[in-house]
Amino acid sequence: MLKYNNKIWWKFLFKPSGYFFEGMIWSVILYGVVTGLFTFLHELYPIKLSGLYSISPTFHTVLGLVIGLLLVFRTNTAYDRWWEGRKHLGALVNTSRHFSMKVFGYLGNEELLNLIKHFPYILKEHLRNQNFSEITNIFPPAFAKELSSIQHKPNLLLTRMSQIVLEGFKNKTISGEQLIILENEIEKLSNILGACERIRNTPIPFGYSIHLKRILLIYLITLPFGFIREMSWWCIPLMMMVFFTMIGIELIGEEIEDPFGMDVNDLPFDELQVKIEGNLDEINKQ
Question: What span, in angstroms and rounded, lies between the C-alpha atoms of 243 and 237?
Answer without folding.
Answer: 10
